[in-house]
Design goal:
Blueprint: E1 2-8, H1 12-23, E2 28-32, E3 44-45, H2 60-70, H3 75-97, E4 102-103, E5 110-113, E6 119-122, E7 124-126, E8 131-132, E9 142-148, H4 156-165, E10 169-175, H5 192-199, H6 203-213, E11 219-223, H7 232-239, E12 244-247, H8 254-269, E13 273-276, E14 280-286, E15 289-295, E16 304-310, E17 321-322, E18 327-328, E19 336-337, E20 360-361, E21 368-371, E22 374-381, H9 391-394, H10 397-413
Parallel strand pairs: 1-2, 1-16, 2-13, 9-10, 9-11, 11-12, 16-22
Antiparallel strand pairs: 3-7, 4-7, 5-6, 5-8, 14-15, 17-18, 19-20, 21-22
Bound molecules: flavin-adenine dinucleotide.
Flavin-adenine dinucleotide is lined by residues 8-14, 31-34, 36-38, 40-42, 44-46, 279-280, 311-313, 316-319, 331, 383-384, 391, 397-398, 401.
Length: 415
């Protein structure tokens, strides 16, 4: 099977890359084993919240220069200041162009509200989610927080307690609509995805409850379990008589699943081929180029292409595999940076930065994967599998995945 570009991994990074290349007329295939980190998505894309030295970041566009000083292997260091700045703008335009509405900008981090009601810096937040511009104060005097009776993956009281510390009072309302009752026969059925399937079809009933019970509040806070179906969240917001703002629940993430499906469908509409549920297992490398890659489902029938993009994610998606004595990349056996001394992998203080988070595939400055110290001519690496950054401590996970994908697609297009 011959394509212009073979993309291995169909999470955020692989999909952004695939869409960007397909829009420019490249014939792309994405082969993806299964779910991606988007299924656990908060609704907010982080660009740079904290520097490697622990200092909080307010303006990623100007403060990235400190990343460049502090972290030589960081993907942002490889991009450099000018390319980083340009790609942040490109990324914001990319989402606007494909009709994904996001709030925020790389010039100023805003705050998202976590499932525990605390505030956390971020870059871009999905439309309809609760955000704040300030850390010390929220924009509402009083909110009404709603939750379906028996839904255990959302914590109104924690949120109300945190809001009160910031001067916002809350009233909490547990509600039901009869269509949810069949989910209660088995408590494990009362999960965000199943609830969303019901609520999306009953927006009028939900809006009537919200309007009746939220008199006296400035805004309605709602668990992010509406919006699996296109347009339903907007419909709820229109039917309610005050702003309805989502706060993420425990996974699965409705906004993440929606985003994954939306990007997937967008890629298909551009003529891309997406093979879900297949895994690349090995490749032939000749003359410093990837010649063929082989998948489980296609056996001896290889995929061939001018360029290959490896976007298989980190440990979570098995793009990286950790054994007791090494960390490796399982398809090409690319060079991986990791500490030889296993003591450096972990910090027993669980909230401290963990060494293993920075491990990843080594690349040159163009994100070409290194094999035995040499960059392969046509194998690019993007996303969470890259070396040199800590997505959790630095709050830069989505930023690295998106910006590296845009950079890689630019390199392929300008060859
Ligand atoms: C649980 C979790 C939650 C996160 N939440 C956020 C958040 O809210 N905001 C934020 O900014 N960042 C978040 N991050 C950081 C996250 O890494 C990035 O935001 C981003 O989504 C990662 O995208 P990716 O495409 O690089 O990798 P992934 O999303 O991991 O996708 C990799 C894909 O490759 C596929 N794959 C793996 N091996 C193979 C193979 N051999 N053949 C074919 N396919 C393969 C996998 O099945 C998967 O679909 C989160 C990370 C995790 C782990």
């Amino acid at each position: 099977m011959k394509f212009d570009t073979i993309i291995i991994g169909g999470g955020l990074s692989g999909l952004v890359c695939g869409i960007r290349l397909s829009r420019q007329g490249k014939r792309c295939v994405i082969i993806s084993s299964g779910q991606s980190a988007l299924h656990f998505f908060s609704g907010s894309y982080d660009l740079l919240n904290v520097l490697p030295n622990g200092k909080e970041v307010n303006n990623p566009l100007t403060e990235v220069k400190d990343v460049i000083k502090q972290a030589p292997d960081h993907p942002y260091t490889k991009l450099g200041l000018d390319q980083f700045t340009r790609l942040v703008r490109d990324a914001e335009l990319f989402f606007a162009d494909i009709n994904i509405s996001l709030y925020g900008s790389g010039e100023k981090n805003h705050y998202r509200i976590t499932p525990m009601g605390t505030l956390k810096h971020t870059w871009l937040t999905a439309q309809g989610f609760a955000t704040s511009e300030q850390a010390e104060k929220l924009q509402w005097k009083r909110v009404s927080i709603f939750n379906p009776i028996g839904f255990l993956d959302f914590y109104p009281q924690f949120i109300a307690d945190e809001f009160l510390k910031l001067g916002t009072e809350s009233d909490i309302h547990l509600f039901n609509i009869p269509d949810l009752d069949h989910l209660r026969y088995n408590p494990s059925e009362l999960r965000s995805t199943n609830i969303a399937r019901v609520l999306d079809k009953n927006i009028d009933k939900v809006a009537a409850i919200l309007n009746e019970k939220s008199a006296g509040s400035d805004a309605i806070i709602f668990p992010a379990c509406v919006g699996l179906e296109a347009g339903s969240l907007l419909e709820l917001q229109k039917a309610a008589d005050k702003p309805v703002l989502m706060i993420p629940t425990m996974p699965p993430s409705i906004v993440g699943i929606y985003t994954q499906q939306y990007l997937h469908n967008y890629f298909l509409k551009l003529g891309g081929v997406y093979m879900l549920g297949d895994s690349i297992k090995k490749a032939d490398i000749e003359n410093n180029r990837v010649k063929r890659v082989y998948s489980f489902n296609h056996g001896d029938i290889p995929f061939t292409g001018d360029d290959v993009v490896l976007a298989t994610g980190s440990y979570f998606s098995q793009g990286l595999i950790a054994t007791p004595d090494r960390v490796y990349e399982p398809i090409f056996n690319l060079d991986v940076s990791y500490a030889d001394d296993r003591q450096e992998w972990y910090n027993p203080k669980i909230f401290e930065p963990q060494g293993y988070q920075r491990f990843g595939v080594k690349t040159d400055a163009d994100f070409k994967g290194l094999l035995n110290g040499r960059a392969l001519d046509n194998l690019y690496v993007s996303g969470a599998i890259l070396e040199g950054f800590n997505p959790i401590k630095e709050g830069c996970g989505a930023g690295v995945s998106i910006l590296s994908a845009l950079s890689v697609s630019e390199s392929i297009l300008t060859k």
